[in-house]
Design goal:
- The complex is a heterotrimer of chains A (about 150), B (about 775) and C (about 260).
- Chain A has about 150 residues and is of the alpha+beta class.
- Chain A has five helices and five strands.
- Chain A has a five-stranded mixed sheet with strand order 2-1-5-3-4, covered by helices on one side.
- In chain A, helix 2 packs across helix 5.
- The longest helix of chain A has 15 residues.
- Chain B has about 775 residues and is an alpha+beta fold.
- Chain B contains 19 helices and 27 strands.
- Chain C is about 35% helix and about 25% strand.
- In chain C, the strands form three sheets. In chain C, strands 4-5-8-6-7 form a five-stranded antiparallel sheet.
- The radius of gyration of chain C is 18 Å and the shape is globular.
- With about 260 residues, chain C is of the alpha+beta class.
- Classes of the chains: A alpha+beta (about 150), B alpha+beta (about 775), C alpha+beta (about 260).
- Chains A and B meet through helix 2, helix 3 and helix 5 of A and helix 1 and helix 17 of B.
Chain lengths: ~150, ~775, ~260
Amino acid sequence: MKITLEINSEEKSLDIKPGEILADSLRAAGYTEVKKGCDTGSCGVCSVLLDESPILSCSFLAAMADGRKVTTIKGLREEVEEFSEYLVNEGADQCGFCAPGFALTVLAMKKELNAPSEEEIKHYLAGNLCRCSGYEGQLRAIKKYLEAGYA
Amino acid sequence: MHKEFQEVKKDRQKIDGKGLVQGRPAYTDDLAPGDALIVKLIRSPHAHARIVSIDASEALKLPGVECVISHKDVKRIPYTRAGQGHPEPSPHDKFIFDEYVRYVGDEVVAVAAVDEETARKATELIKVEYEVLEAVLDFEKAADNETIIHPEPEIHDMFPTGFEPKRNIAAAYAMEIGDVEEELRESEVQVASSYYTQAQAHVALEPHAAFTYLDLHGRLNVVTSTQNPFHTRRLMGQALDMPLRKIRVQKPRIGGGFGGKQHVHVEPYAALITLKTGKPAKVVMSRREVFEASFTSHQMRLDVRIGATGEGKINAIDMHVLSNTGAYGEHALTVFMVSGSKSLPLYNKVKAVKFGGKIVYTNKIPAGAYRGYGAVQGNFALESAMDELAHKLGMDPVELREKNMIAEGETSEIFRIMGEGTEGVEMIVESCKLDYCVKRGRELINWKPGQLVQETAPGKVRAKGVALAMQGSGIPLIDMGSAYLELQDDGFFKLHIGATDLGTGSDTILAQIAAEELGVSSDDIVVYASDTDLTPYDVGAYASSTTYVSGNAVVRAAQNMKQVLREAAAVKFGVDPEQVEFDRRELRTKDGAKKVSLKEFSYDTLYHEGANMKTLSASGSYSGEKAPPPYLAGFVEVEVDTETGEVDVLNYVAVVDCGTPINPNLARIQVEGGLLQGIGMTRYEDVQYNAKGGMRTNNLMHYKIPNREDVKKLTAELADSYEPSGPFGAKSIAEIGIDTPPAAIANAIYNATGARIRELPFTPSRVLAAIRKANR
Amino acid sequence: MEIINYTRPASLDEAYTLLKERQAYPLGGGTWSRLNSRKIDTAMDLTRLDLRFIRRIDTAIEIGAMSTARDLETSPELKEVFGGLFPRTLGNIVGVQMRNIVTVGGTVAGRYGFSDLNTTLLAMAARVVLYRDGTVDFEDFLNNRSSEPVLVEKILLDTGTNAAFQSVRNSAGDFAALNAAAAFGPKGWRIAVGARPGRARLAATAGGVLGADKAADPKRAEQAGSAAAEELSFGSDIRGEAEYRREICRVLVKRAVMEVAE
């Protein structure tokens, strides 16, 4: 079946199977920044924005995205550039496999929460797993990034 | 000793960091050609069986199915998948395909098709008939079991390792210094307990992936998520019976390793399809396959006895280990040996010490390399037993450790006796700030002897615990790394290294090391790594070797590069090379009469010097004569819910002596990441099976790794230390972080509740049961 | 999950017809269904039926079936009436990305044993409005084993209900090893326990122990916990053994009751 949606502000028409998950459709269409890590909706590396909300593209049928707006990390170049500076300054980027989905969720959090506490940050991002960093470096980066944003 | 540095001991940004965060194509699956055949593996549903028949006729009729390969189509060559030096200390006991399958997940058939869906459908159409055999699932009953897992005659070890497959023994070892029984008898206080560690899954977020193709010259190109491209080339040559000159292996960015990618997993299957069809082929493991059919850490039982004087001076330690290697023996002997060789020297003043045991085959997923590499298991047993001893002595656990722990300028006979599969190497400890680490850690956690427990609310108890650790820095006389430097026009250098960045930032820190030695900025070093055609040899990223071994190779290459520059400039200046200095991007005669900037010089040597034009390059290799251990003091505060058994980690403090941290930020993250992986192992990570040997925890819904709400706080600090043999004073840091959480948390739970738990992991259910038992 | 036909009904009537005449499979968020390997002839996407709402009407809260878990978690209406109950109930479900997909309708209709939300809804005496098939108590809905397909339109909650949710998880992002909810509403106390690991059940005796008085003391809360542990059945799986579940059932029920009573 055909679906038409907006990906990174571009209108796209994709030919998909009705049971296909969005992550597969996106990767097949060349959006390799959408990673696949677990197949069960458990790790968060496949995160994309559906309209303004972060979702797991591995747990969402592509057919359901018809007519909607999907944003991958590459659709938010300026914001990501800014945030990546903070993350890399802490050395928390590490293997980077979780990074696109993680960064995207951080950006969504910044829009959704107002001056979140450390606990709120951790809670919002709990679905983004990282095996490398132990999360502390990510937290240091996020706090500095948010502080700079509110300053 | 406290040198001023320009490029090392600096928080440089990881060179690939921003590109990865911004989602640029970087990993194996991102780079695979769109027309690659998709390869799927049919894996054994049985823990132990003989394949009676394989009928692929229906699958082959399916349009888009390219070919089907099974044991009938490949040469039967025993090999090992373990990425290790040559000859490998792991037995050659695995075949690409075999008539027998030895665990649920063992490879049976490879299918190649034009796309995912066709490949998947084809696997469903292939009928495999099995004769199911008795399986050995309990590792404590594996040795001399009537079921033999490896009866095949052609398997073998590469040198004597105690390999006795007819007894289901993959390897065995024993050593003793002094008379342990005698010393234990003479000791006023003794403890003796058995400790159990479970198998842990690596869970690198990128699943194992590889693609293969034939290049213009008909050579097999392998792009793979590996920790050791050169070993992979050698092992594939073995398994496929191909000369190594016909194979090129490249590692792009990889999404985490933790030891899980220190093996050949999917590469031979893609290669077989490419060799048969001439077409590119790709294998990407599903997460379920990663769980069921890559490797895990080694499950162990460790029996520990310690004898001490009434004042807490340790006389003797005995550690006896039974290790489960699963269906194949990758890293069987070496992981087992590290459980002793990287725990026992912590208490080096003993009069006698004994270590021994065996590694058995079972019909479970093979165990392999895993961050810590046995040291975690050894540490849990030894550091738990230390607290049991402290309790018996009525002594503060920290004081007991301070009385007995290793110090700078000392040695342990174990260094000489125990290597990895072979003898070790004598070593005087030239850098050891464990005393500082303990002191600082005690401050950070606010450790007060006799006041380690506090009830915060009804049913909630807080308590503290401690454990110390050591690791190594590469494997002496076995690991070797190399580097190549070349001056480019405009005056920058390319640095080619065989070393393998797993995401840790090793490409970045090796550039920092080169820059420091050359006296240039690390921005002027362009790194290319991990390609068997284009980069010099390196064993790869394991055994905490890269900073120390590959880093020292980079230092040597840079030293040689400076000499090459001076010699070339001497010709230009018409003086002896000894008269030339290279400093701050400038070459000049010592009297200052003649000088040229590096930039100008680079153009001259490549464009302006007529018959004297040449490429200026240098290389260097390093193989360590020692493996200086990093040290860590781990302190934890937990809160135990005594009604539900939940254990909350409030703060985990680790103070680490890693010598000079080349990049303090990246070093600290290594510690924090290691701690959390260790805390996951301590609290709930556990590879579990059903009664028939099928894995119950084969996805990330049922096998949980820590998320960011699982721990309240990690506090990692680095001690000021300098290792004379390391590059600019550096030692390793990649593994040691994982070592202490099991024992430190066990000790804290004991201090909180009086319940001593000797079996990992400490799930709420197990903790509650232990509390009830202790209170009875 | 393999889907042959994918439809997006434009009205509830159309959806109802597809359901009854073509046995169309109603998709909620689709997160759990997609892990299933079954083949679905016709799947219905209900996202265009205006079922995503949370509103207060007199003493009832209406929650549309296509409201996401995240909608409930962040709803100002729910927060005003029930305080932190819904963030507490839903907050451990994987992550915001998952909670932005999973729907109340899908959760309720799936009758999942592991569900946290269903335990809370059961304790709260929620009612389920089935399009054209009447309104049923969630308890009956949960226990109904008939395979007659229904279309969940919305969930009704009574604003006069106070409830609390408790769970034990082996790790923060895991399914509950056991969960429990206690609620005090117009009909008195109700105790529900889920992830036993079977689907949530009401502990009627435990509710009876507490009677019609909201002010429960610790002793009675403990008695209620013990009663629940006695009257309910528990099973073993990788998250805990039956005996462990029974043990912590006492604790969680006690704690949930005290939370409501205070």
